[in-house]
Design goal:
Shape: rod-shaped
Radius of gyration: 26 Å
Number of strands: 6
Order of helices and strands: HHHEEEEEE
Largest sheet: 5 strands, mixed, barrel
Helix content: 40-55%
């Protein structure tokens, strides 16, 4: 009778994975399935729990990095993350040491700083957004192309 619980757990974890598509419970669903099979083969509860834990951890450690690498490749950048790589116009001199500076990108004004602790960029320069730290854009001067 206790083997049925593993099957129920497997189905519940599979449903959660299907609903979320987050690659979070699939590893434990695999562990529950193998624990169910070990119960059907007549192994005791302690062995079933050990099999569940071992298989789940092995699946998580060995296959998750591959799954993350190959799934969700077409994920769209959203919100502020999509600004990385965009060009911006410096609207207020950037002085990272003084924590001053503003840029305009896509019609929105943002606080900005450089990656260097004493970085400075003059007003009306074109910069490239390299990252986001808190509510500030990390920018660098756009290099002139020859």
């Amino acid at each position: 009778m206790q083997t049925v619980y593993w099957l129920v757990l497997f189905v519940v974890l599979l449903i959660i994975e299907i609903l979320t598509m987050g690659l979070t419970t699939i590893w434990f669903a695999g562990g529950a399935l193998v624990a169910f099979v070990s119960g059907v083969l007549g192994f005791g509860l302690v062995v079933q729990i050990a099999v569940f834990l071992i298989v789940s951890i092995i699946l998580l450690v060995l296959t998750r990095p591959l799954a993350v690498k190959y799934f969700n490749q077409e994920r769209q950048k959203t919100n502020a993350e999509s600004l990385i790589g965009e060009h911006a116009l410096v609207t207020e001199d950037i002085d990272t040491l003084q924590a001053k500076g503003r840029v305009e990108v896509r019609g929105q004004e943002w606080s900005a700083k450089t990656d260097e602790p004493d970085g400075k960029i003059a007003h009306d320069q074109i910069v490239v957004v390299e990252g986001i730290q808190g509510v500030k854009l990390i920018v660098r001067e756009k290099k002139e192309e020859a």
